[in-house]
Structures are given as structure tokens and as C-alpha cells.
Amino acid sequence: MLPLLARLQVPTVIMHIRGNPQTMMDRTHYPEGKIVETVAAELYERLAAAEQAGVYRWNLIGDPGLGFAKHGDQNIELLRCLESFGSILGQSMGEWPLLVGVSRKRFLEAFATRSPSTFAQVITEEEVFSSGDAKSRDFATAGAVIWAALHGADFVRVHEPAVCDAARCFLRLQRLVETQGSEPERSTTTAASS
């Protein structure tokens, strides 16, 4: 694949994964407290290999691979530390775009539960699969997209583009507050009583 990408010179997303889709969930062991550093280092190796194969550096887009060879809490940790992830990877390679594919991921089920009492409980893989409809995670996806956009993601991958409307709305309002300040001061008028 790398020689083909080097020949075509098209933008290329390189995603972190261990193994393949059949074996990846057997390869989720990362050094304790070091998932961000480990995933960044392993992704850097793949990006460097692409560059060595002749893919122009400016065509490379990195993806931490949420859901691929990572369990729920590991995915949440990568999202939580997205800025650190980008910084660690960027120290080796310089600045480059980051894509986050968070759409409808199973680990979002913890955020999509409707009952506050079940929110803090650990959700088993069986419960996630039995919950059925992945579309029910679209609102949780919107929240994760907003988080990713605020913490270093340049691109997001979603199933339902409408979930990005929530992110666009939030980010636009945030920029307005940053450039224009919070609510304008209201003028106080007192009505005279007759």
C-alpha cells in the first residue's frame, strides 16, 4: 500500500491498530498508565514508514484508532488526553493533521445510557451488543466530536453528518464569546411610576 500511496501522492490517513480486525482485541495490553505515549509512538512508526516510502509528509494524517485494539476505558483515556497525544506525536514529526473517528463507537454507550444509576456502572461487551441500535449513540457522538474539536482534532469521521451541527453551533458560539466577549451589558432603564 505505501508504494502505491507514494506514487499517487494523495492525502492519506494512517490509523493506529495492532493486528487486524480479527485479532486486534487480543492485543489491547498497554503499559500501565502509558496508553497515550504508546499509541503515539506506534502511530509515529507507521507515519515514519509512510514518509520513508515516499509519501509526502504534508499528505499524512494521523488517527489514534479509537476502538481498534483498545477497550472502552482506553478509548476514553485517548480522547481525554487528545491534546497530549497530538503534542507527543508532534514532537517527533512536527505539526500535522489529526483525525478522530469517534462516531457511534461502542465505548460511547456509557455516555448514551439514559439512567443516571447505570452511567457509572461498567457496561459489558454483551450488554453493548444487545443494546442494538448504533444510531442511539449519535448524541454521545456529537458530544465526543465537540470534545475532539476543542482538544486538537483537525478532522472527525462520523456516520451521520448532522451530528456535526452540534459541534459547529458550539464552536461558533465559543468563537463569538472569545472575540466579542460574553453577553453585552444590558442597559437598565427604570420606568417612572405615575
From TrEMBL:
The record's annotation in Pfam families points to:
Pterin_bind
Q: Which SUPFAM superfamilies match?
A: Dihydropteroate synthetase-like (SSF51717)
InterPro entries in alphabetical order: DHP_synth-like, Dihydropteroate_synth-like_sf, Pterin-binding_dom
Domain (Pterin-binding): residue spans on this chain: 1-172
Q: Which stretches are transmembrane? A: none
The superkingdom listed in its UniProt entry is Eukaryota
* Organism, scientific name: Cyanidiococcus yangmingshanensis
Q: What is this protein called?
A: Pterin-binding domain-containing protein
- One BP term from GO: tetrahydrofolate biosynthetic process
